[in-house]
Here is the input.
Amino acid sequence: MVKKIPPIKETAPASATCWTHVFEKKEEIANVRHDLLTWYDKNKRDLPWRQNAKCEDINQRAYAVWVSEIMLQQTQVATVVDYYNCWMKKWPTVESLAKATLEEVNEMWSGLGYYSRGRRLHEGAQKVVNEMNGNMPGCAAGLLKHLPGVGRYTAGAIASIAYNEVTGLVDGNVARVFSRLRVIGGDSTSQAVTDAFWSLAGTLVDSERPGDFNQALMELGATVCTPKVPTCSKCPLRSYCRAYTQVEKHKQNASARLIKVTTTTDIEDNLPDIECAADGCSLCLPANEPWDSSQGVMNYPRKAKKKPPRIERTAVCIIENVNKKQFLIVQRPETGLLAGLWEFPSTLLDENFREEQRMAHVSTFLKTHFGLHFKSSKLKHIGEVLHIFSHIHQTYVIDYIQVNSAEVGKLQCDQSTRWVDKTQLLESAISTAMKKVFKTYEAGVHISTAKTNGSKPIPRKRKASGHDRTDKKKQLALETFFKPALK
Here is the structure.
């Protein structure tokens, strides 16, 4: 059954004073819906969450879509597929997820990034089971209000796909499609542009197949109307795309100039005028960033300039119990970056630290937090690893120290610390960054051990050649290569 919402009036967004950036004709809107859905039915990818969305149980459908949409935030489809399949196999229902521990959730999410997503999904499942009798909120407004980590887009996706609610949505792919269809070149993060995108989403969404239509828009943005090298020749909405029309007009005008055609008005009249008639329109390309013919449709959308990432250096201390071949790991706080994950003991470094200051800082840190006292000579420097988060360029400076079981017994350890072997470490909820740190440690220790044992690297054998200096034959003079062969 289709859930109806009041029809959206075909009015321009408040920020626009012309019709350049909207769909003003009902016939065109109907054609866009038809052509896009026809294309989607023939070209959609076979993805596991789309199969699960066909489940007869409406609550199960909503859960399956919810998991997929949270995983797909800031993450590519190819990466998500395996994680999604493993997740749904382990926790096929919202009730089974609610029974899981946060530790289990973090372990499953390890490597997917943006770990707060998994935590909020877990919190949401517990809320559905404990406060809503196991029933997911039944509309976009309810999903937005009651589920942690569910924003306007995710609520629209779940409601339209699982409940067939007639509601639009906007994600990065959809925003890119809209910006090209209606030549929206303003700052894509501005409120005016955001409002314009959501207005278009509400205007275009198909009332009979809202979920499929929304997925079709996202599919088009992901596979055809891509950020770079879009394949306009395969786009089902090419004839409605004003960015494409703009490119074609430029080509025709350029051709006219090339062949010295003086009456270009006949050529220009073949394509509609797409210039915005409003002065200072917040949806048009900014005056200081005019349209670039070399970019074509990729002139849209225009993104705001990102703030430069924060530069940080962090000391990471790998402490090994040599008697048991175990490593000390600690759990991060429940809030903030990488919340609740496990890592090797780490401490932020001052960017101005010299080497001796860094070593002194690490020594003080280990004494203060773990009661570990040692001679500075025991602390071995392994190397550095750069890991880039969305807003931080983090350099991990890796040190290594060995302790024996007697020393371990004197350490200050609590519930936020544990000793694990290599297998347990890699199965724990540790970040990709810590896996890179451990890999660098293993390589560094291997090299250090080889040097200590006096072993030398095995030289690579060089293939013999006819002109190798090691051959017994004399090296030929250059001119001999140009003499005619003897018959």
Observations:
- DSSP finds 18 helices and seven strands in the chain.
- The first strand starts at residue 310 and ends at 321.
- Residues 326 and 424 are 9 Å apart (CA to CA).
- The first helix runs from residue 26 to 43.
